[in-house]
Write a structure and sequence with these properties.
The mean pLDDT is 78. The chain has 8 helices and 3 strands. A 3-stranded antiparallel β-sheet has the order 1-3-2. It has a domain of 108 residues: Winged helix-like DNA-binding domain superfamily/Winged helix DNA-binding domain (Arc Repressor Mutant, subunit A), CATH 1.10.10.10. By secondary structure, the protein is mainly alpha-helical. α1 packs antiparallel against α5, α3 packs across α4 and α3 runs antiparallel to α8.
Length: 204
């Protein structure tokens, strides 16, 4: 009869590893389902997916962006990014305006309706997390945060530093340890490279 994973026939080390992996998957699934998908459905009846909302939140917190930047953030081609932008604009969440510095460029900004959606989402998230935070002692919360940070960084150490990240779900921080492990926040790096390239092209 085959042994079941995590039962007493495994060594203590194997059982500890099994529990770590199991609860890591449960935690990641709970964050995505409860703190992203379900809250987004409560915040708006619009059929937005999580990636589209992350872009909306990113732009709400960090100002206007160009279409090419949004493509970089989503890790898709400019035409694919345009489809997402068209949808956000059609829902009244995003606005296109011509760039004053470069007539070839179009700047994207979040509309007041889009900002209200992001604010409502954050309020719902705060309310949903409040009982969880209240159930922990300050020292427990600090320890949990530190442990999640250490485990996350350890798992990402061997990954290629290329490409966009957004593992923080657009909760950007200058001292992000994941960004530090990858040679800087990919969001800031990509935006800086694109701005330098656009500036060089406008001089030619």
């Amino acid at each position: 009869m085959p042994r079941k994973a995590g039962n007493s026939s495994h060594s203590p080390e194997e059982q500890d590893l099994f529990r770590l992996v199991r609860y890591s998957h449960i935690f990641a699934s709970a964050v995505q389902q409860v703190l992203e998908i379900e809250l987004l459905r409560k915040a708006t009846p619009l059929p937005l997916n999580v990636s589209q909302f992350h872009v909306l939140k990113l732009m709400t917190l960090n100002g206007r962006h160009q279409v090419g930047e949004v493509a970089d953030f989503l890790g898709v081609s400019p035409p694919a990014a345009t489809k997402n932008i068209d949808k956000l604009e059609r829902y009244g969440l995003m606005v296109r305006t011509p760039s004053k510095g470069d007539r070839r460029a179009t700047l994207l900004s979040v509309s007041p309706k889009g900002r209200r959606l992001v604010e409502k989402f954050e309020q719902l998230k705060t309310a949903r997390l409040a009982p969880v935070v209240e159930s922990l002692q300050p020292a427990e919360l600090e320890q949990l945060t530190s442990l999640l940070q250490r485990v996350s960084i350890s798992l990402l150490e061997d990954q290629s530093p290329n490409g966009f990240c957004l593992r923080c779900a657009a909760y950007l921080a200058e001292d992000c340890p994941v960004g530090h492990a990858r040679g800087g926040c990919p969001y800031h790096n990509l935006r800086g490279v694109r701005r330098e390239r656009d500036a060089a092209e406008s001089r030619t």
